Amino acid sequence: MGTTASKVENASGMPALKTIGVLTSGGDAPGMNAAIRAVVRTGLANGLKVKGIRRGYTGLLEEDIIDMEAKSVSDIIQKGGTILYTARCPEFMTKEGQDKGAAICRKHGIDGLVVIGGDGSFQGAKQLAARGINTVGLPGTIDLDIACTEYTIGFDTAVNTAMEAIDKIRDTSTSHERCSIVEVMGRNAGYIALWCGIANGAEDILTTEKYDRDEERIINNIKEKKKRGKKHHIIVNAEGIGDSYGMAKRIEAATGMETRATIIGHIQRGGSPTCKDRVYASAMGAKAVDILCNGDSMRVVAYKNGQFIDYDINEALAMKKDLDSYLYEMSKRLSR
């Protein structure tokens, strides 16, 4: 065991941590359990007490808080979802909810908190930090839409799940010589659609960032490929575009090609995390505890240029992210 908690002050001159908490907030993502495990065991290795907060900020406000030991996180690294559960909490968006959350942290002796989630979860962490609770955010979202990082916990598993599903749909689409529209998750971010479109060799990729709603162009693309002897057509459609069933009807009517729509849905959130999601989530969880033990707060852990680093939470939230233009343009060339 380490000696961090026995020190009066840490390296930055701040009072040493004694107890940290960890919660998962927003949408679940494969790899969250690996991050929880790393937070708990790194905390214990540094002589800290660790508490798990169930059901995110909702559980914090309801004091659904448990003590966690090394055994608490045994046999979870391979499991999808989150053992701490998750929920969305409108109450925590209010000043009263934030004040209450900080008071509850102090009541339970939690002087450092690791928040695993997306931008909305980080906003909550920022408010707790402003109220004296040291916080560190971990990017946990299958959408890969957090601008400060090249990796988010869960994306790798989700995109591989979607890719495998589209491979299977392509088999039956080819057999029936039909057009298949496959809707993947990504309400405001098209990374799953873009990556799957490239990996699955889709003829069209529709994302919220790039799609111009020109359905006639897609119809003409199908007709042109049909003339060249193409027997099937795959369209990967992001959730934010939607209307997959209506689009299928219109395309079939305009092209004469049998067209079917499939919405993959929440299967993309579940399942055993990939090796990458297990390893990277573990590294991020351990780094979050290291940051707290160093006396830092209001930080977000990120992966950039092959390294695990951290940003000020305000800087991270101010960053903007768009689809990789090169990958998008490349996908169009490869689909010809």
Structure description:
The chain has 336 residues and is an alpha/beta fold. Helix content is 40%, strand content 18%. The strands form 2 sheets. Strands 3-2-1-4-5-10-11 form a 7-stranded mixed beta sheet, with helices on both faces. A 4-stranded parallel beta sheet has the order 7-8-6-9, sandwiched between helices. It is elongated.
Structure at a glance:
The chain has 336 residues and is an alpha/beta fold. The protein contains eleven helices and eleven strands. It has a seven-stranded mixed β-sheet, with helices on both faces. Strands 7-8-6-9 form a four-stranded parallel β-sheet, with helices on both faces.
Written as H for each helix and E for each strand, in order along the chain, the element string is EHEHEHEHEHEHEHEHEHEEHH
Class of secondary structure makeup: alpha/beta
Number of distinct helices:
11
Shape: elongated
**Helical proportion?**
40-55%
Keywords:
four-stranded parallel β-sheet, seven-stranded mixed β-sheet, alpha/beta, elongated
Layout of secondary structure:
Elements: E1 19-24, H1 32-45, E2 49-53, H2 56-61, E3 65-68, H3 95-107, E4 112-117, H4 119-130, E5 134-139, H5 155-176, E6 179-184, H6 191-199, E7 204-206, H7 215-227, E8 233-238, H8 244-255, E9 259-263, H9 275-293, E10 299-304, E11 307-312, H10 313-318, H11 325-334
Parallel strand pairs: 1-2, 1-4, 4-5, 5-10, 6-8, 6-9, 7-8
Antiparallel strand pairs: 2-3, 10-11
